[in-house]
Amino acid sequence: MADTKSMTRILAGWKREGLKVLVITSCSSLKSGESDVPARRLYQGQLFKAVADFATLNGFDLAILSSKYGLIPGNEIISCYDKHIKERAKDEHFKELVSRQFARISKDYGKFVVVMGETYRKFLKKHFDGRFLVISDDRGIGGYKQTMKQLADESR
Q1: Which one, of 3, 2, 77, 89, lies nearest residue 36 by Cα?
Q2: Where are the domains positioned within the chain?
Q3: Which of 56, 73, 132, 133 sits most deeply, having the most CB atoms within 10 A of its CB?
């Protein structure tokens, strides 16, 4: 993973070039409990909120890799559920679904920022190329949150 100053320079360059950027993050186990709400509102985890705030601050769109719905736009209306990504690890149908969803969504974007753990990244990894900035952190959720806070602070 590059340091946050390098990432900030990359992101600023994309914005200067007028590239449409999609931030892709994972769902969270902490949910609002509501039904029929935008995905962005359902997920309540601290990291999810930090990533969603980062996307909003930078004028980037948000997509979520949901363990139930696959890769969905942040504004897609969904219902609360209890499913974990580890249950999907060997599910070939789910892997194909995510691949098809990414192919459909990605046509509208020039660059992608990926913020998610390795278990989730496996579903998108085959698509990673020069258009992607993948943010990973071996320190776990605390490290991710710190990185997202620094990126948000540097974006202001």
Answers
A1: 77
A2: 4-150
A3: 133
